[in-house]
Automatic annotation (TrEMBL):
Domain of life: Eukaryota
Cofactor: heme
GO MF terms held by the record: heme binding; iron ion binding; oxidoreductase activity, acting on paired donors, with incorporation or reduction of molecular oxygen, reduced flavin or flavoprotein as one donor, and incorporation of one atom of oxygen
Entry's localization field: Endoplasmic reticulum membrane; Microsome membrane
Entry GO CC: endoplasmic reticulum membrane
Originating species: Castor canadensis (American beaver)
Membrane topology recorded in Swiss-Prot or TrEMBL: Peripheral membrane protein
Key word Hydrolase present: no
EC number: 1.14.14.-
Protein name: Cytochrome P450
Length: 489
C-alpha cells in the first residue's frame, strides 16, 4: 500500500509538472499558491470561507492568480477592474461556460446556461426572442406579476399574524410567473405538484452550495460514492419527468399557427427544422432549456426575497422608511407598478443594497476562455476555467464605503436620489449576463413593495439578536432558517 501511495504521488507530480511546462510553452500562467499533488489547492480553500480565502490570496498574488482545483488550473479574477476587463471589455474571449461537473452530468452541454458555441448562441437567441414575445420586459409580464402578488397577499393574510416560514410562499410568485410563460398556466398554492416542484428547486440550491459539491466538482470521481449529489440527480430526474409530461400535453393540442407559450414556440421551431440534422432544436434541448429557465428564474429570486425580508427584520427602521415612501407615492389601495420605482428612490436603493449585501452568487458561474489569450502580462490557454469574484466587486470599498454593513445609502446621493453604480453586478455582466435580469428586478420591486404595503414584518426575537450570516456560501449564499409574523396594516 505504501508503494502504491508513493507511485500515485510521483505520477501526480509528473502530471502537474507537465501542466506547468505546457503553460510555459507560449507564456506564463498567473502566479498562485503552490498546489499539492492530486488535490491542488483544495485543502487551502475547503471548509473555509472561500470568499475570504480568495480575498486573502488576491492581496498576496494580485487581482489575477491561478488556483488548482484538483489537477486543473483555474484563473481567478478579483476586483472590479479585472472582472470588467474580462467580462465586458473582452467579452467574446471570456464568453465560454466553464466546467461545473455536477451540472454537466445531467445537462450534457444542452440548454441555455451551460451550453457553449453555436448551440448556446442559437438557443439563447431563440429563448430571449420568445420570452420577449411572451411579454418579458413589457406591461403584460408586469400584469402577471401584479396578479400573482395579489394571490401572495391573500395567502399571507391566512397566516393570521402567526409565526411562519416564508420560504414556500415567496417562491410561489417567481415560480408561477415562469410557469405562465412556459406552460401558459399558474398553479394554485395548495397544488401538491407545485409544492413538490418548489421543494426540488430549494433542495437543489442547498445541495449545489454545500462543501461536498465543491469537492465533487474538483474530483468528479466522487460520483461513484454516496453523497448529496445523488439527491440532486434524483430531484432532477423527477423535474425532467414533470417537464416531459407538460410537453406531451402541448404536443397533443399544438396549433402551429397559434403558439400559446414557450413550449409551443419551441415545438413549432422543431417542426420547421425537422429535416435539418444539425438542428439544435431538439426534444432534449427543449427539456433542458425549460429546466434552465425555471432554475434560474425561481430559486434565485425567491432566495433574494427571503434574504431581503430577514435583513428588513434585522433593520426595522428601513422597513418604516419604505412604508412611508409607499404611503406617499402609492397609498394603500392601488397596486404598485414599475412606474412607481422612479418616484421611490429609497425603496429602489434598499432592493439594490439587499442584492449587493447578500452576494447571492459570490464567484459567478464559471467561465472559460475561448482561445489562447494574453491577459495583462499572463498567458491563459484555451479552455482554462475562469472564476470571476463578484464578491470583490459588490464589496469594493471604493464604491461602497464600509461594505460589510447593510446600508441603503450605498445607492443614494447626498440629495436622497437613487445613485447607479457600475460595481453593481449581482447578475454578472457581458455576454453571459443573466437573461432574466429584467424579470428579476421587476419581481423584486413589485413583490417586496406589495408585502410592505399590506403588512408590518414582526420578528420573533429582538432584531439585534438576528443573525444574517449565510448558512452556506458555496455556489450560492443561502440565508439561515427563520420565521416571522406578517401583521396586516
Amino acid at each position: 500500500m505504501d508503494l502504491f501511495i508513493f507511485l500515485v504521488i510521483c505520477l501526480s507530480c509528473l502530471i502537474l509538472l507537465s501542466l506547468w511546462n505546457k503553460s510555459y510553452v507560449k507564456g506564463k500562467l498567473p502566479p498562485g499558491p503552490t498546489p499539492f499533488p492530486i488535490v491542488g489547492n483544495i485543502l487551502q480553500l475547503y471548509n473555509k470561507d472561500i470568499k475570504k480565502s480568495l480575498s486573502t490570496l488576491a492581496q498576496e498574488y494580485g487581482p489575477v492568480f491561478t488556483l488548482y482545483f484538483g489537477m486543473k488550473p483555474t484563473v481567478v479574477l478579483h476586483g472590479y477592474e479585472a472582472v470588467k476587463e474580462a467580462l465586458i471589455d473582452r467579452a467574446e474571449e471570456f464568453s465560454g461556460r466553464g466546467s461545473f461537473p455536477l451540472i454537466e452530468k445531467v445537462l450534457q452541454g444542452l440548454g441555455i446556461i451551460f451550453s457553449n458555441g453555436e448551440r448556446w448562441k442559437q438557443i439563447r437567441r431563440f429563448s430571449l426572442m420568445t420570452l420577449r414575445n411572451m411579454g418579458m420586459g413589457k406591461k403584460t409580464i408586469e400584469d402577471r406579476i401584479q396578479e400573482e402578488t395579489l394571490c401572495l397577499v391573500e395567502a399571507l393574510k391566512k397566516t393570521n399574524g402567526s409565526p411562519c416560514d416564508p420560504s414556500f410562499l415567496l417562491s410561489c410568485v417567481p415560480c408561477n410567473v415562469i410557469s405562465s410563460i412556459i406552460f401558459q398556466n399558474r398553479f394554485d398554492y395548495s397544488d401538491q405538484k407545485f409544492h413538490t416542484l418548489t421543494k426540488y428547486f430549494k433542495e437543489n440550491a442547498n445541495i449545489v452550495s454545500s462543501p461536498w459539491i465543491q469537492l465533487y466538482n474538483a474530483f468528479p470521481i466522487l460520483h461513484y460514492l454516496p453523497g448529496s449529489h445523488n439527491e440532486f440527480f434524483k430531484n432532477f430526474a423527477d423535474q425532467k419527468k414533470f417537464i416531459l409530461e407538460k410537453i406531451k400535453e402541448h404536443q397533443e393540442t399544438l396549433d402551429l399557427n397559434n403558439p400559446r407559450d414557450f413550449i409551443d414556440y419551441f415545438l413549432i421551431k422543431m417542426e420547421k427544422e425537422k429535416n435539418n440534422k444539425q438542428s439544435e432544436f431538439t426534444m432534449e434541448n427543449l427539456v433542458i432549456s425549460i429546466w434552465d429557465i425555471f432554475s434560474a428564474g425561481t430559486e434565485t429570486t425567491s432566495t433574494t426575497m427571503r434574504y431581503g425580508l430577514l435583513l428588513l427584520l434585522k433593520h426595522p427602521e428601513v422597513s418604516v422608511k419604505i412604508q412611508e415612501e409607499i404611503e406617499r407615492v402609492i397609498g394603500r389601495q392601488r397596486s404598485p407598478c414599475m412606474q412607481d420605482r422612479g418616484c421611490m428612490p429609497y425603496t429602489d436603493a434598499v432592493i439594490h443594497e439587499i442584492q449587493r449585501y447578500i452576494d447571492l452568487i459570490p464567484n459567478n458561474l464559471p467561465h472559460v476562455v475561448m482561445k489562447d489569450i494574453q491577459f495583462r502580462e499572463y498567458f491563459i490557454p484555451k479552455g482554462t476555467n475562469i472564476v470571476t469574484s463578484l464578491t470583490s466587486v459588490l464589496y469594493d470599498e471604493k464604491a461602497f464605503p464600509n461594505p460589510e454593513k447593510f446600508d441603503p445609502n450605498h445607492f443614494l446621493d447626498a440629495s436622497g436620489n437613487f445613485k447607479k453604480s457600475d460595481y453593481f453586478m449581482p447578475f454578472s455582466a457581458g455576454k453571459r449576463v443573466c437573461a432574466g435580469e429584467g424579470l428579476a428586478r421587476m419581481e423584486l420591486f413589485l413583490v417586496l413593495t406589495k408585502i410592505l404595503q399590506h403588512f408590518t414584518l414582526k420578528p420573533l426575537v429582538d432584531p439585534k439578536k438576528i443573525d444574517t450570516t449565510p448558512i452556506l456560501t458555496g455556489f450560492g449564499s443561502l440565508p439561515p432558517f427563520y420565521e416571522l409574523c406578517f401583521i396586516p396594516i
